[in-house]
Amino acid sequence: MAESDGQERTEDPTTRRLQQAREKGQVARSKELATVALLVAGAAIMMLMGDTLGMALMEFMGRMFTLTREEIFDFSVLMTVLTQSVWHIVWPLMIILCALFVAAVIGAAGIGGINWSLEAAMPKWSKMNPLSGLKRMVGMQSLMELVKSILKVILVAGVAVWLMRASMQDLFEINRELFPNNLFHALSVLLRFVLLISCSLLVVAAIDIPYQIWQHTEQLKMTKQEVKDEYKDTEGKPEVKGRIRMLQREAAQRRMMSEVPQADVIITNPEHFSVALRYDPDLDSAPIVVAKGIDHIALKIREIANENEIDIVPAPPLARALYHTTELEQQIPDGLFTAVAQVLAYVFQLKEFRKGRGKRPNVKERNFEPPTDMRYDN
Hints:
Helix content is 64%, strand content 7%. By secondary structure, the chain is α+β, with helices and mostly antiparallel strands. The strands form 2 sheets. It has a 4-stranded mixed beta sheet, sandwiched between helices. Strands 1-2 form a two-stranded antiparallel sheet.
């Protein structure tokens, strides 16, 4: 097991480690899968398009050997004949080449996906070091390549012998056929041999694919210290995170304070707790907590309320209950509806009194107490 600073690489690679490796072009690849995909696709497309391509080649050769004297000595006519003859070869050949290209891309990107990396394309002088080459020759990778090579030889030889025995009758019949039927028959047998032998190599690819994925993961494994260092780099150092959280809290407080002038009432402890409530019957189905705080924040809420002539109602049990049970921009709990309704009714009557309408409400006649199960006296 590889070691780094005395620590073993026992931790699976993180998402960031995998992404960095991908940017460097280090992804799991299976050469066996790419080879088999190309061979199988090549044999299959030749079996489908081989007759068409063969006939086109025969027509082309036949036409070139039957040129008239006028066609030979008239360059424009000769080019016309040549172009027409070549076109019959080009389109089946393009289909074959396109199929091979698609198979090559699919085989190469089968387990690692399509990845473009300029860094991987740059020349590395370390790869030209003879000592590095010797290490690769005696490593685990070389041993695996040797095992795959031996397996491929055994598979190809075994399948070839079996096909020769199974196709003995076809091979004898070719000798009795006339040209060009014998030629097409021989090509058909040959392509069938190539396709089946190529398919046998899927066994090697099935072994190589999980091995390449495992090896890629092993190469990118990390020590516990590397995981910790990456976490610090990603999430930030504790003191930096603390500073960020403090700035976030300050920004949240500023936003909260900006909502206080929109409140209808401030319910206080009266010193340690302050909760600002807004209630618009046309918009809100229940009162909304727009700001809350304790100690110096509670004092700041009261200062803003005084500057904006917002009524402040001392109701210690209700203030504590609202503070502990309701988040900002949320409706008050159902259990506090009655007590808050008493506060709002008192404030609305007080505003009417200031406008010269009605008598001054008596705060002592109001019951601002929350239910027993929602009290926070401690």
